[in-house]
# Entry
Amino acid sequence: MKPGEVSLAHRGVLFLDELPEFQRPVLEALRQPMESGRVVVARANQHVAYPARFQLIAAMNPCRCGGGDMGLANAQSCTRAPRCASEYQARISGPIYDRIDLHVAVPAVRPRDLAIEKPGETSAVVAARVLAARLFQHQRMQNLGLGAIRSNVELQGEALDQAIAMTDPAQQMLYDATDRMGLSARGYHRVLRVARTIADMAQEDKVDRQAVAEALSYRRLSVAAAAA
# Structure
């Protein structure tokens, strides 16, 4: 038995383009690796576990038509919106959505905008900021005696409680949002980790309301609603 794509992406990136076009069993097979960081292959006479601690990045169109109702007055506009979008997005199960930390709706880019050079940060600037956040995380893990943990995504149970360090207003906001948004236990913990990372990017020892609000904004967003 040979390692597959999720193991080949260990400590790297697994990019799935056109996510709903993958067969359902293939997507559902990602559940265990996304949670545990390893994949178990079972056969009649053999069980093998491979490492699979990857960063999943997935992309999809709002609907099968490719454009969706994104305010485009051209042939790309979907004539079956919003039903087309809801049916297309439903090809991905709730548990898979729940395991993806950041859901970002990207608006369509008009061809004429491609020729306009817009200012932005270079990859080197972004990389330096990410490295600073990782070093900030590492120092906190060392101070808490959690040196074996490499990043916030690996925080579980008591270690997660130790590392979060939320302010009281931030905790109350998360409690309220959990009820209002109907977050699952998995979704709740993923919001905690994302909020902790946002605070790390700002070099903040405590997770405040602003970090929690931003983390909540990344939970599952209906692409059809965002495009309307």
